[in-house]
Amino acid sequence: MPPYPDELSTEIRNRFAHVDACPFTGPRIFFENAGGALTLNSVVDTSARFAAIPDNQGRDNAASAALGKAIADARADMALFFNTTSGRFLVGESGTELLFRLIRTAVMGQSGKGAVIGSSVEHPASRSAARHWARQAGVDYISVSHDDATGRVTADSYAQMVREDVRVATILHTSPVTGVANDVAAIAKAIRAKAPEAFIIVDGIQHASHGRIDISAYEVDGYVVSPYKMFSRHGYGVAWASDRLTGLDIETLANGPKGNWEMGTRDTGSYATFSDVVRYFEWLGSEVSDAETPRDRIVAAGASIHTHEKALTDAMLHGVGNLPGLASLDGVTILGGTDNPDREGLVCFALDSLPADKIVDGLNDSGIRTHIRRADHYSGNILTPLGLEAAVRVSLCHYNTMDEVRAFLSAVQEMALPNATNT
């Protein structure tokens, strides 16, 4: 399927800061979006505006009331984007911190024995938290193995391992190493078939920038994102907690408002910049569809993002024009497989003939920003079973273009086949 037309692509790119040049090194192509996406210009403006306001929420003055309204509006926007009419939204230090907090609350908020279940494909943000709090609670941790070839963990795999006494389950929506998404709704259903009362927490950090979040369809209790990976900025994470999870003995100020997850004065700019992201998705949806409601526009935006990014990743893998793709290179390993229908805007690869760090350095020299994933505490769960010490992660978003993919393939071709010429 074709990517965005040039005119729309230009409009999209004009809405982002540093889209084609690094403020430190000059012109570059940004294929390191899984490490942190580009920032909307509107987010930059909103951040500066709210950073300059000296007032706090909860005071009896007009400025304080305006801050309170910005937060309330943002929470409504979060509900719109995540598609839920229940539960609570909270802002924290980061997505990782929020995953730890939600998982801690779910595990420690229940008495008696039981078990915690998660999968080997997960990022340590959820896996480390689940294992740690299972130990603290003195309960079993059950590890569901992912499939090394596809990079995916399935509902069937969870179903084979889940026990009736599971009290907490964690699910990774999309891997930041392989870019492969898991079927959250199917996995949650498989868990609840045996452990209907389990609290299910989802790491949606890598998935969020690609759109298509629908909490109402998942039947889960927690969902966490990192806004700096979805066109906002660093310094905060956003979590949704179900009413059931909020009903546990959460950490909160004594005698304060019931069910209040947040402690201390909030950064209003965090909330306001999330609203900027939601407005952007609505705008994009209006450009690619005739959808009339805000939610339908967000859905349409997510669908168009998936289509555009698939066109780009397919070109990376299979080539475009007279440029061969990564899959044609001798001794190449494509994490998750070459033709994986669950891939979301990311290709991770390794070459037998050239170390990953050399590839990343060479691409940097060509003005193309990518990232090395090593078999460490972040990525060893994915790379080690494949016999890889490192791999090159090429992660893109919908503002990237086919011309950028061509430049990438040309640079890789020159490094992998230095004597080859493109005809």
Kindly list the characteristics that best describe this protein.
PyrdxlP-dep_Trfase; 423 residues; PyrdxlP-dep_Trfase_small; 2 domains; 7-stranded mixed sheet; 4-stranded antiparallel sheet; Aspartate Aminotransferase, domain 2; Aspartate Aminotransferase, domain 1
What does this structure look like?
It is globular, with a radius of gyration of 22 Å. The mean pLDDT is 95. It has 423 residues and is α/β, with parallel strands linked by helices. It is 39% helix and 15% strand.
Shape: globular
Strand order in the sheet with the most strands: 4-10-9-8-7-5-6
Which percent bin holds the helix content?
Answer: 25-40%
CATH topology descriptor of the largest domain: Aspartate Aminotransferase, domain 2
Query: What is the level 1 CATH name of the largest domain?
Result: Alpha Beta
Radius of gyration: 22 Å
Derived from helix and strand composition plus strand pairing, the structural class reads alpha/beta
What's the story with the biggest beta sheet?
A: 7 strands, mixed
Number of E strands: 15
Please indicate the percent range of residues in DSSP E strands (runs of 2 or more).
5-15%
Question: Which regions contain 5 or more consecutive residues with pLDDT less than 50?
Answer: none
Structurally, how many domains make up the residues? Answer: 2
End-to-end CA span = 25 Å
Keywords: Pyridoxal phosphate
Domain Aminotransferase class V: 29-246, 305-408
Protein name: Nitrogen fixation protein NifS
Pfam families: Aminotran_5
